Amino acid sequence: MQTLLQLQNGELKGTVELKLSENLTDFPLEIFELADTLEVLDLSFNKLSALPADFGRLSKLRIFFCSENHFKTMPAVLSDCPLLDIVGFKSNQIDTIPAMALNRNLRWLILTNNNIGELPEEIGLCKRLEKLMLSGNRLATLPGKLSQCENLALLRIAANKLHELPSWIATMPKLAWIAFSGNNFSKTPAVEKLSAINWHDLEISHVLGEGASGIISKANRTISDEIQEVAVKIFKGDVTSDGLPEDEMMAYIAAGFHPGLVNLIGQIALHPEDKKGLVMELIPHHFYNLGLPPSLASCTRDVFPKDRRLTVQQVLGIAKTIASLAAQLHEAGIMHGDLYAHNTLIDDEGSTLFGDFGAASFYNQLDSQLGAALQRIEVRAYGYLLDDLLTLHAQPIAGTALETISALRTACLLPDNQKRPGFKDLVAALAKI
């Protein structure tokens, strides 16, 4: 992170990326001196409420983050930057989106946790849009013209006030990841509670990881005179880009037992800050993440370590486990919403563990048409996973097994939602390999 003083002293000349967070109340005009080179600007965690009228002077700007500020209206001047394709205004106070603010070059738009009650129909003009983050707003409807954004692959609309999921959702040719929990039409069914585990019977050791919804730590659990090593997830309780932590916890519990899931042991009781949490089996040390989350460049597709290579055994193990688990989830009326390699843990033998229910949503199983459409949206995400697996195999596709998986990948990625196989079909096809 750079400083305002460095900027004012001319020390940042030629800078391509600039990040300033110093409780700024006014846009530093010295930024314009970087107009010939500046491509990435991050002014998050300030107190800004407006941008200058000549913001478009930043003609090379591609990425602009302005989260955790005081904006009430999304600035119309964003359209004046010809190359701008990633914009983030998470956690402001935005209640108005002028049509002019929607730069037609946008590929990724983040408006999570604001007060937006309506989106302009002009969003349909953003033909490049791949990723749209709208969770935690006041949307009662989605504009019909959004259906014209044919490149849209990831949509987050959880924790709004939507009365229904529009029928055109099923016609989106590239939509693969969607989260919609916490809306008027999305009802969480009664979920049987897990065994209560007293917080005082847990000795927290160290943090294993942190996500948008919570923190996972290693812990020792005392049972009578025995010590059990476990993992503990404590939910933060805030709206995330994917949805509500409460919905995540309920979906995980409702998923039930599956060998591809980290087994749940119980729910936290008597937390000193009354926070919700889960106790899980500790994942063995020999498991590792298959992939990494999408980058700013890849947008909706995972990225992978350069040295990641998979054997045929691993490809088959991962493909079969995830298909089986996804079939079980949809049998229970659960849309995972985040079926990705970065949520997948594997070992060298192809054993697979899948998790992170942060984007999970319940849907009405009695509505067979909706259920089929949602399942086949998730099937497209599975198709991208198969594509990743085949790429990571890094050898010519040969032999019955890989040829079958290649054919399934093609079927899962068909633009027509209705022509894709269901997860039961995929499980049956993979069982023949």
What does this structure look like?
- Helix content is 19%, strand content 18%.
- It has 433 residues and is an alpha/beta fold.
- The longest helix has 26 residues, at 368-393.
- The mean pLDDT is 93.
Radius of gyration, taken over Cα atoms and rounded to an integer in Å: 23 Å
**In the CATH hierarchy, what is the superfamily of the domain at 288-431?**
Transferase(Phosphotransferase) domain 1
H/E topology pattern: HEEEEEEEEEEEEHEEEHEEEEHHH
Summarize the biggest pleated sheet.
8 strands, parallel
**Gross CATH architecture of the domain at 288-431:** Orthogonal Bundle
In percent terms, what proportion of residues is strand? Answer: 15-25%
Low-confidence runs: none
Q: Counting H and I runs of at least 4 residues, what is the number of helices?
A: 6
Strand line-up of the largest beta sheet: 1-2-3-4-5-6-7-8
| Average of per-residue pLDDT values | 93
Secondary-structure-derived class: alpha/beta
Reading off the top of the CATH hierarchy, the class of the domain at 288-431 is best stated as Mainly Alpha
Shape, please? globular
Through-space gap between termini: 52 Å
